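Complex record, two chains
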Amino acid sequence: MKYTLEYRDARLVSNVIARINKLVEEYDRPLVLMEICGGQTHAIMRYGIDQLLPSQIELVHGPGCPVCVTSLELVDKALAIASIPGVIFTSYGDMLRVPGSGQDLNTVRAQGGDVRVVYSPLDAVKIAQQNPDKQVVFFGIGFETTAPANAMSILQAKALGLTNYSMLVSHVRVPPAIRAILSSPNNRVQGFLAAGHVCTVMGYWEYPPIADKFGVPIVVTGFEPLDLVQGILMATQQIVQGKHNVENAYARVVTFDGNKPAQSVISQVFMDCDRKWRGIGMIPASGWCLRPEFSIFDAEARFSVEQIQPEESPLCIAGLILQGTQKPPDCPAFGSYCTPENPLGATMVSSEGACSAYYRYTGRSVVNEPVTVS
Amino acid sequence: MCLAVPGKIIDIYETNGMKMGKIDFGGVVREACLEYVPEAQVGNYTIIHVGFALNLLSEQEAQEILSVLREIANVDDEIGSESA
């Protein structure tokens, strides 16, 4: 058992697709499902799952791409901190090409800033240990999946007595985002594929009240082709039958309660806070920030980087794409003014961004004619 | 970002008071923190995200869903060949 190849079996996938087809045969209305996680979006596009589904089922792509939703203000703060002499700025690789108002972290590095990609926040702690005369800042982005790692780095820095480690925290949470999407007057989503690895950490005990309140099914879904079609089948089945339960299509990894030791460390280090999402705006209590007892590790407090006036590209419609009301090919700049080499918005950069998934896997067949910029 | 990869735990040890391990991802071996899976033992499969084990994988659950799906596919194949 490898836990990957078994879930890429074409025969089993086509069989599940055939069952989905049969289910919607007598259902004469369109059916809109949203996969929350950008990793799922990329897997769907990569394996062409959207092309295999009956035309009645539309998949819209959710905001589960932390790189994409990290606010422009925080990206600009990261750029400002990374430019300070004596700072080693560490980050997951995806963040380096995300455009701020003027430049990105790669540009700061090219201009002499010490910007380093790390695989894990514990690597950033190690860099702080090895460089006691430098300030080491870690860009703590991520959803619930990444919070246990980021929280542990804070505890580790504290245990080691490090005074030169801090974190620029930009944690976001899935359940408040689902509520915001469902509360929008423009919402079209009838069912959700919940993000499997977020639920690995948090479980799915937070979702039944949402499914009940809004009358939508939520199915915890994995990332392999068979996981995805199974999640789609279960959500479709519920919609056709008029049900709205929370189900788990990723039971080999996810339990109802989630990982309790991880949740305990998260709540020891972080607390709920309002968070601004790039392109979407403020969502109340949708983020995590450091608890007051860990404020000495807060990079925003340690470095004075006020007076930031973020400026987003007027062409970019990433916010609408992240809310599922528009798709990448709807954007006039898609593939012309905005490409992975020269992205206007974060959704074109990230390995989880919806625009980058469309650009990479649908080729230029959906690329728009360049728009005139006055 | 929320990419997490399954791998097999091949060694467990302690560093700076943290439970750590070596994880084999089909031949590529990397270090990961096992603090969040205190019950982990060598030979278990786990799912790793940014250098941290998020959970142990349940072989029983994995086998169950696969055998159900295979059974359905076999039955469908049989029905298909009978009606053809």
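Note: The first strand of chain A starts at residue 31 and ends at 37.
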